[in-house]
Amino acid sequence: MQAGPPPTPAGGSGVVEAALKGLCPRCGAKSLFAAIVEFAPRCRACQLDFSAFNLGDGPAAFLTLLVGALITGLAIALELTLEPAWWVHLLLWLPITTAAVAGSLRFAKAMLITLEWSGRHAPGMTEDCRGQSSPDHQQGAREGRITASE
């Protein structure tokens, strides 16, 4: 028996659309974020617990480096072509960098939580294996090497 593709988020929207709009992956309500890049504790509509999803700091570190490299390249190009005063760089690049990091971080976090939810509810998943990880992780948990919080 073949497993189909993972389910799309509620409301039939795709992962990218759900991430752009900050939609709850279960019900499709616009309730994923409490602030610009901070998740709400749970969905206001269906009570899905967003704190159960573990994204860590990976998206923040990756996007900060990526946006930083892009902005640095653009700032060097501007300096070599127009040679503006230092304060022009400050007034131009500081808000652009802040907006780019916050915007891309919001999108990346929303996309990752939607993908994680979709993966947990993929066809063929049983109640026993939802939220579980690899057999090595399960074996480590049985032997007491890994706690439930890891």
Description of the molecule:
The protein is elongated. The chain is an all-alpha fold. The protein has helices at residues 15-21, 58-82, 86-120, 135-142. The chain contains 4 helices and no strands. Mean pLDDT is 79; it is low at 1-6 and 125-137. The two termini are 32 Å apart.
Give a nutshell description of this structure.
By secondary structure, the chain is mainly α. The protein has helices spanning about 15-20, 60-80, 85-120, 135-140.
The coarse overall form would be: elongated
Helical content (DSSP H or I, runs of 4+)? 40-55%
Note the gap between the termini. Answer: 32 Å
Sheet with the most strands, sense and barrel status: none
Element order: H for helix, E for strand: HHHH
Number of domains: 1
Arithmetic mean of pLDDT = 79
The gyration radius over C-alpha positions equals 20 Å
How much of the polypeptide forms β-strand, as a percent range?
Answer: under 5%
Extract low-pLDDT stretches.
1-6, 125-137
Extended strand count: 0
Instruction: Please tally the helical runs, counting DSSP H or I stretches of 4 or more residues.
Output: 4
**Strand-pairing-aware structural class:** mainly alpha
List the helices and strands and how they pair.
Blueprint: H1 15-21, H2 58-82, H3 86-120, H4 135-142
Provide key terms for this protein.
single chain; 150 residues; mainly alpha
